[in-house]
Design a protein that fits this description.
Number of strands: 35
CATH superfamily of the largest domain: YVTN repeat-like/Quinoprotein amine dehydrogenase
Shape: elongated
Structural class: alpha+beta
CATH class of the largest domain: Mainly Beta
Number of domains: 2
Strand content: 25-35%
Strand order of the largest sheet: 1-8-7-6-5
Length: about 625
């Protein structure tokens, strides 16, 4: 190819790149204008539907319409974000190609052409025209780049800073507040019955859930020991947690329990197999945890945050612990959405203490009799929905996933004192997922998932052992674990099977993806529940789909395995029980009688379910 041909080729490339860049820039500006005209958090049409639902709480068709509208709105918004990000990269690529082609073009032209004799004013006109084109093009490109960044960060302004309380702090003994309650709940189906009144809060208002687009956390992953490792004793064992149900999703947070003789049929309306139900003083979305003869849940509102301990046998409320007088805790709670609230994370217990965390950033420990042991303020989570990562305990440590819009970290506190044992900064964005424990090569790992990583950490030191970039969007589901494989998934991302020894991907799938419900892996099968109501069973080793069941309603609860059966609660309070097998076999459908989207707990032939207003015990 001679210089003349090269000149012609570079000219054509420059023209094409210029047209391409201007087109992409204009599309980005148009997309920014469209997004800026609509608030992704609020939709007038959806708000109108929700207001109508308040007047017609039993209108099932209206509920379906709201869910479909919400899903379409979120998909449209997510697609818009993807288009902006992709457009920004395409624009940068086009600009680079244009600049390179122009450089080649003018270099070749100078070599093969003799300068023409032109008038001075003609030269000035050409220069002025060229400068004008360059200036206009640069302005369009700059506006497009600016619009892309402004659009990507659109949701960062949803969360607001909260005021903090004064520096004064009461001593632990002075701030203890335990409320003893001698109230006996209504016995359903038993020989005695005492009436008990409780307030009802009415139907839950559906919430709009959009995809968070926070600024990437640039901090390097580091492990720092703020205090020497504390030599505490009496850590719980695997046998201890298998005997109890001490965390969200049971032993080690994996969703598999060893208890037998679990009932598979009950009815809230008639009281069939409902042993007792007891009212819950304050609202929350955390699931029950159990140790011995005690069941623990928490609740919160703008006025206070509380921990409740119930007698597992009869449902009597034994004590209430109040999380107050914590140094640094905000005087005014942060803004959260109704479907998250201030008490979404589930508690955990080691049999000596019970631990709770609230959306204010307050962590508190009580002993098993309700006496306050310690409390600590971690800082208000910068989170536009509210904090929901549950707690888990192991090796005398309280393990906390604290991923926010300002970056992520994993924290281990000494269970006895609340002092920091280790803290690891993570290359992650905000997450609503909860920690899971897994024994791998004789060492326990803390496995966390967020945007964009799934990672494993040494429980003893906090050292990051492996990390895989495979998630995106607003990550709510925790991981599943079975037979040396980690399973992670998120809506609009992918479903992956990971090797926790090196983080490599074994297989991946993008057909059915969870939004809030966590994957469940056990005995060669993997269960996935989508928010739009489809329960799916895969081969855990290969990702091959065995069966699916469209239940037609929202699924936020996580599936559980107990007594060889699969238990799946929907958001309306209907629990479906399946055979845990390669074939879809529905055993029963059991209506609790009130809204309940939490994950059940199991112990000694009984199921414990938190409803919207009451705590239920189900048994034969």
């Amino acid at each position: 190819m001679n210089n003349t041909e090269k000149l012609k080729l570079s000219e054509n490339i420059a023209v094409i790149a210029g047209i391409f860049s201007i087109t992409v820039a204009l599309l980005l500006l148009l997309n920014f204008w469209q997004v800026s005209k609509s608030d992704p958090i609020e939709s007038k049409a959806l708000i109108a539907l929700v207001d109508r639902l308040k007047q017609e709480p039993n209108n099932e068709e209206l509920k379906v319409e709201i869910r479909n509208f919400d899903l379409l709105a979120r998909k449209a918004y997510f697609n818009s974000q993807w288009q902006v990000k992709t457009g920004a990269y395409l624009l940068l690529f086009g600009a680079i190609i244009l600049a390179f082609a122009l450089r080649v073009y003018y270099s070749l032209k100078a070599k093969i052409e003799q300068p023409d004799i032109v008038l001075e004013n003609e030269i000035a006109s050409r220069i002025l025209a060229q400068k004008g084109i360059i200036i206009v093009g640069a302005v369009v490109l700059a506006l497009a780049f600016g619009a892309s960044f402004a659009t990507v960060n659109h949701l960062n302004y949803y969360n607001v800073e909260s005021e903090t309380a004064g520096s004064g702090e009461k001593s632990v003994d002075e701030s203890i507040q335990v409320i003893e309650v001698g109230e006996v709940p209504k016995q359903v189906g038993g020989s005695t019955e005492q009436n008990l009144t409780s307030e009802t809060s009415g139907p839950v208002q559906p919430e709009i859930v959009f995809v968070e687009n926070s600024v990437e956390n640039e901090a390097e992953t580091v492990v720092k020991s703020e205090v020497p490792k504390l030599a505490t004793t009496g850590g719980i064992t695997l046998a201890d947690v298998q005997k109890n149900h001490n965390s969200f999703r049971g032993p080690l947070g994996q969703g598999v329990v060893a208890h037998k003789n679990i009932p598979s049929e009950w009815d809230g309306a008639t009281g069939t197999n409902i042993l007792w139900k007891s009212p819950i003083p304050k609202h929350g979305y955390n699931s029950p945890v159990i140790w011995g003869n005690k069941v623990f849940i928490a609740g919160a509102d703008d006025s206070s945050r509380e921990v409740y301990c119930y007698n597992r046998a009869d449902g009597k409320l034994l004590w209430t612990g109040v999380a107050d007088n914590i140094s640094g805790s905000p005087a005014k709670p942060p803004k959260v959405t109704e479907d998250t609230g201030l008490s979404a994370p589930s508690l955990t217990t080691d049999g000596k203490r019970v631990f709770a965390i609230f959306g204010t950033g307050d962590v508190i420990a009580f002993d098993m009799n309700g006496k306050r042991v310690w409390a600590k303020y971690l800082g208000v989570p910068d989170n536009h929905y509210g904090h929901s990562s549950s707690l888990i305990t192991w090796a005398n440590k309280l393990l906390i996933q604290y991923d926010t819009n300002r970056g992520g970290k994993a924290v281990a506190l000494d269970a006895a004192t609340g002092e920091v044992v280790w803290e690891t900064v993570r290359k992650s964005k905000v997450s609503w997922a909860s920690p899971v424990l897994a024994e791998i090569d004789g060492k326990y790992q803390l496995i966390l998932t967020a945007d964009p990583i799934v990672a494993g950490y040494d429980v003893e030191t906090g050292e990051e052992l492996w990390s895989t970039d495979c998630m995106m969007g607003e990550v709510g589901p925790s991981v599943g674990y079975s037979d040396g494989v980690v399973y992670a998934g998120n809506e609009y991302a992918i479903l992956v099977a990971l090797n926790p020894k090196d983080g490599s991907i074994i297989w991946e799938n993008d057909e059915y993806l969870p939004e809030a419900s966590s994957p469940l892996a056990h005995d060669g099968l993997l269960i996935i529940a989508t928010s739009y109501g489809v329960l799916v069973c895969y081969d855990a080793k290969t990702g091959e789909q065995f069966w699916e069941h469209d239940v037609g309603t929202t699924l936020y609860s996580s599936p559980m395995i107990a007594d060889g059966k699969l238990f799946m609660m929907d958001n309306d309070g209907m629990m479906r029980v399946y055979e845990f097998s390669k074939e879809m076999k529905l055993i029963s459908e059991n209506d609790l009688g009130e809204i309940a989207g939490t994950t059940p707990a199991f112990s000694d032939g009984r199921i414990y379910i938190r409803g919207d207003n009451n705590l239920y015990c189900i048994g034969k």
